[in-house]
Amino acid sequence: MRKQYSFVLMLLLAFAFSVQAQQFVSTVPSNRNVILEEFTGRNCGYCPDGHVIANQIMANNPGRVWAINVHGGSFSPTSYPNLNVPDGLTIQSGFSIGGFPAGVANRSTASAQGRGTWTGLCNAQLAQPSELNVSGQVVINPVTRVASVTVEVYYTGNSASDQNYLTVAMLQDSIMGSQSGGSTNPAQWVNGQYCHMHALRDIITPSTWGEAISPTTAGTLITKTYQYQIPETIGSPNGVAVNLNHIFFLAWVSEKMQGTPSRPILSGCELQQMMGTENAIYPMISQVTMTNPVSCEQEKNFSMHVDNAGLEALTQIKFKAECEGTATEYNWTGNLASYTSTNINMVVNLPFGNHNVKFSIVEANGQPYENSKTISATCSEWVNLDMQGDEEELKIHIMQDKFGNQTTWKVFASDMSVLASGGPYSMLLGGTATQLHVESVTVPKNECINFVIYDSQGNGICCANGNGYYKIFDSNDNLLVDGNGDFGEEASHLISTGQGTGELTVTTLDVRDITATSATFVGKVQGGTAESVGFEYRKVTAPTIFTVDGTLNGNVFTASVQDLTPMTIYMVRAYAVQNGEKIYGEDMTFTTTPTGVGELYGQVVIYPNPANEKLNINCKSMSEVEVFNAVGQKVLSQKVSGTTTQIELGEMNNGIYFVRVRMENGAVVSHRFAVSK
Fold first, then answer.
1. Domain that holds residue 639
2. 536-551 residue pLDDT tens
């Protein structure tokens, strides 16, 4: 099950990694990441509480902690879905387990520990310096189901053991099945079934306890590659189908063998993952998300995660979105190198209600093509609130039922920030007692706010426990929302503040189809009637402003511009004219590509992106690196030589930046990256 090869793909990967010895792993010393092996079972009533604790630890430490649900023992039946696997049973046998759930954090203890200790154990490991860093990539061929795995281990210090052990594991999410006590973890309890997450499916290294690696001294880079045939199902009897969209891979390095287990774990990581085939052209939409779920408009922004799983670079893709018989098309142009991925945005007009929206690739590099992804999307109706000033005070009436301790509410802005919140309230005496709470909330003008009321037990604020309700009034006591208390787990309502009042607002939405000399601008107008629309743009280093008229389609307008200067940062803003006056959207910057970007762009690799303290740059030969902020100001310049360099980001604020790399042959390549601290 472990060693079937895709020879052509392996040669391609081998060539790619021969160009740069180090592609993924950081050489900067860091603290340990944590692998939390959680011993669990479907017949264990307390195990969902362990899942909640492990999930919270991961949420508190994103990109630092990964839980592995290892099913086995008397609490793990072989009925469907059978989540027992031989490697899991071997791992469990390596630790003393007194009861379920239990777990080990980086195998730092010889005995599995109770769930109440996991947070402290993980925090202790996170604070400990690591001798090494681990990173890598998995390329999955969706046709052959072969995973080509590359793992890099870089030693920033000396290990206490001359020989360490590298382990690579495959995990799977979203396996639906039974679970004792499952309802105590509402996040994974779906229509009476439990959604099992990060379940161990297989260890792909030659041994469950890992493959020996050496040397283990500071400055050593070790690269390991594996070819793994992903099974159709895992488990016998009553095996579970292995869905390629729900699997991911972890890698970790243990210090030495102690008894049977390899422990302690020095550090680990989740491997980067994408689809890759031996076809020339093979784009895939791997995921689609709505990027503006809280919006008081029918034009919704969707982000498509697109993998180039083919051998040729993609320079053109035509997308089609279909909803209730209406189709929207968008033609993307750019340069997406082989075995890389990107997010591509698309605006779709949705009818009110819940809908299945099918996103398809219908053309790639000028050739007809078929690939699609269907998602469920909602367009909720909203209430318009006419405002005279810049703020409005709303009155929220909550008539609680007997169990006010189960009731909470929040008011969100369109960026999902919380403007106000309330509850829980007191529990009342009497079987059907009620009590009114009046809350005041100040909301800004020209916002789309979302009021959400929650009941932790999923039975609303009504009926057998008292006739509760909720209402929202404006400052003039006009009723905006009249909510029935029978809403189950939650209910939500959108309120548009100051839109639809005749006041026109303009938004600079996007810059698309950027090449060395051209780009397409996208803007939006709402709340009033525009006499005309367009865009103003200029080089950030020059005062001359250029103007281009926009073409209006609904409330979205676009314009294409030519004759731009290659490798230049521009600033653009949308505008609309009302009563002879120009009303502007916010400024947006973009950078044109260099001439010959198709040949040059892939020669420069930056990581991580987003970056925190440092940005790593790999290139065949460099002479200079410059960094510009979003408005085109140069914030860093340094001379470099060789194939790798590192930029210190300590003085840079959060935001979008551009790094310009000048090669020794005079060629220049620019990459966009984000700083997030």
1. 597-675
2. 999 887 878 999 999 9
